[in-house]
Design goal:
membrane, Carbohydrate ABC transporter permease, MetI-like fold, flat, mainly alpha, 15 helices, MetI-like_sf, about 325 residues, transport, transmembrane
Length: about 325
């Protein structure tokens, strides 16, 4: 074997040893950086994953607190019963209608308000504070405000306003329960959407808008071709966060309509509450909770992929 070949082999060995040492150092550095996060990770697993595993265990059992002697393992029987439960399907549909209705209407109103607040005018700071206030109100207070002060069929402000135009009073929470709930939810979540969109508007490069104005683009053309594509990631983030939070709505439904009339305005969290704490059917309530969690994870994962893809395209 020639000297040059030996030298090449020795150089390859040295390079391999150096690469292995570098990988060892990088792994040690990675663990050193992740180390401070381990307590938070362990705490998160204990608080979220262990209860979820317990919920899965309960969902496989036919446990009813009214019949403690019948606590037996039933496998997937609870999930089969859920698939055949027409009330579960109705409340699932109500959840979709309430969630999408609230998020989409709140986002449209939030965009409009953000565009208005993005331009200077006298009292803009006061207007921003007033518009943000509904998001800071507790959901329980929001429910009482809307059901008693605004939507009451006898002395509610909305019916009083309609009476000025000769329209008869409407019992909103009984006749149109989902619309009543949507009113309260949209009022509460519009400020959140407005803040996200307003942050996006203020992060927009002003020189691009000035160039569009110089080129003769009108306000609508500028918004459609420049501003709206720039706001895409903010809108997607607002829709994702809104869906995750609004799908868990309970306060407004419990206090404004109690899920009625019948189950016309009940959503999945409220129906699960009824099965667990009014019907005492722990097994089926746990199975419903597992189904809702899995569905939420699927929707959130798809939405996150869409958002991350938009960031990659932007970069």
């Amino acid at each position: 074997m020639s000297t040059s070949t030996i030298d090449r082999l020795e150089g390859s060995r040295r390079a391999a040893r150096a690469a292995a040492a570098e990988r060892t150092i990088s792994k040690a550095e990675g663990w050193r950086r992740r180390g401070p996060l381990l307590p938070a990770l362990i705490f998160t697993v204990i608080v979220t994953q262990l209860p979820f595993l317990v919920t899965i265990w309960y969902s496989l059992r036919g446990q009813n607190l009214l019949r403690p002697g019948e606590d037996i393992f039933v496998g997937l029987s609870n999930y089969v019963d859920i698939a055949q439960d027409s009330t579960f399907r109705q409340t699932a549909l109500n959840s979709v209608v309430i969630t999408l209705g609230c998020v989409l209407v709140a986002m449209v109103l939030g965009i409009v308000l953000a565009l208005l607040l993005d331009r200077p005018f006298l009292g803009r700071g006061v207007a921003r504070t007033m518009l943000i206030t509904p998001f800071l109100v507790m959901p329980v207070a929001t429910s009482v405000l809307w059901s008693v002060a605004l939507l009451n069929p006898t002395y509610g402000l909305l019916n009083w306003t309609l009476g000025l135009f000769g329209i008869e009073a409407v019992d909103w929470t009984s006749t149109y329960p989902i619309i009543a709930i949507l009113m309260a939810l949209v009022w509460q979540w519009t400020p959140f959407m407005m803040l996200l969109v307003l942050a996006g508007l203020q992060a927009q490069a002003k020189d691009v808008l000035e160039a569009a104005s110089v080129d003769g683009a009108g306000p609508w053309r500028t918004f459609r071709s420049i501003t709206l594509p720039h706001l895409r990631r903010y809108i997607e983030l607002g829709v994702l966060l809104g869906v995750i939070y609004v799908v868990n709505t309970f306060d407004q439904i419990y206090l404004m309509t109690a899920g009625g009339p019948g189950t016309a305005s009940a959503n999945l969290p409220f129906y699960i509450y009824q099965r667990a704490f009014l019907g005492f059917d722990i097994g089926q309530a746990a199975a419903m909770g597992v189904v809702v969690v899995i569905a939420t994870i699927i929707v959130a994962s798809a939405a996150l992929r869409l958002i991350f893809r938009s960031f990659e395209v932007k970069e």
